Each structure stands twice: as C-alpha cells, then as structure tokens.
Amino acid sequence: MNRLERLLHRLNLSPVAADVFAGSAGAGGIGSAGRLFGGLVVAQAFMAAARTVDGLAAHSLHGYFLRPGRANVDIEYRVTRTKDGRNFRAREVSGWQSDQRIFQLIASFQEPESGVEHADPMPATAPPETLPNRDQLRGRSDWASQPIDVRMATPITATEPLPPDQRVWLRANGPLPDDPVMHAALLVYASDRSLLDTAFRPHADRGRLESASLDHAVWFHRPPRFDDWLLYATSSPAAAGGRGLAYGAVYDRAGTRIASVAQEGVIRVR
Length: 270
Known about the structure:
single chain; alpha+beta; Thiol Ester Dehydrase, Chain A
C-alpha cells in the first residue's frame, strides 16, 4: 500500500456506533516532528459529517483545533445532527482522543441549487508540469512517494523576506475512487498546507518558523476533482499578537474558482 492508498484508507473511517466513527493517523497523516497533521483531522471530521447526510454536497466547514493531537492514538469522531432542513443540513463533529476533545467542526450541506455567479480571476501561473516539487526543494528524499504532489509556482520560503503570497499546484499522486465526498475530503486535507507559511514569509529573515493551526474554514463553490491539478493561491493580510491570518483560493485548470479557505494560527520565531 503506497502513501496515497494509506491516506485514502485513513479517510475511510470505521463506524463505531450510530453517528460515531474512528480514524487513525500513520503514514500520510503525520506532520513535522511526528505531530498529527491538522489537515488529516479536518478531513476525517468532514468525512464523518458527510457520511450522515445522504449524498448532499458540502458548502462550508469551520473547525477549531483545541489540543495537539497524538499521531499514535486513534481519534473518535462523534457527529451531532444539528439541522435537517429541506435545503440545508448541518452537522457538528467532535474529535476525541482518550478523554480529551482535540477538535471541533461544524459543517453545512446543501441541496443543489442554481443562482448568480461571479469570482475573482485565477492569477496567471506557469503550468504545473514545468514547476518543481515542493518536497523535493525542501530536500526530502521521499518526495516522489508523497500522497499529494505539490508544485511551487512561487519561490519557496527560505531565509529571505518575501511578500505574503504563494501559489502552488496540488494533485493526488495516483488514481482516486470516483467518490465526490473523497475528492472534497482530499481538498480539505491539502488545504492545510502553506497557509501559515505564507503568513511567515515577510519575517523569514528573523529565524525558524514554529506554527500551529488554531482554526480552519473551507467554502466549496463547486464540487472539486482532486485527480487533476488545482491551483492554490494563498495570501496573508495580517499578523499580530503571535498569530497569522491567511486566505486561500482554489481554482481548477480551466480557471474556475472551486473553493475558498481561511485559517489563523500561532506563529512563533525560533
């Protein structure tokens, strides 16, 4: 089982009881220094919510990281059905490790509906096939086996101050099942990348970044497909009080805006 297959396995949660699911970390879900990757927790909580709404598409989710997660302990996701309306359904999900709640999510789902449309245009960016892999630039020997292929369209954050803007291309590093919920969950998983790094870029000459996500929000404008390249354009309008705020915009290759993202997190310089 390669790393993408392991990630898909982690996102296919095991039912424990009515509206209760179990998830684990392992390969594909561990961040730096062996920490549990926040994107995996958000994606698993989203999957738990989505499996209780009978096929409706998500339009938004808002999550709070309450405590650091442990990568070697399973997470129990408990779903509360807070609303079952005719057009919208809402779910609250609590992620527990042992007797501690580490994560809280509210997700909303909607029946398909047409309406007015507009979106900011996709920024002009070189095609992903011509760009370097982010993990390879960072010196990771296992970059080719990572579950998500990340291609840098802007310079990687190093030790020189840079504007608080980044653009990366994202795509699953292998075939995916034809499950729209899984494609959305993978986008949620990948959207936790580069946001706080973007907020740190103007201060990269001051030392090494230590960061932790505090909250994470995603708005889906259209159902994503994660088996083709998606452009993730991130920017940070402000940082203060030991925290940084970052926004993200997700576009498909045709330039259609797929999703919007926001995150605030702790930013410390060591």
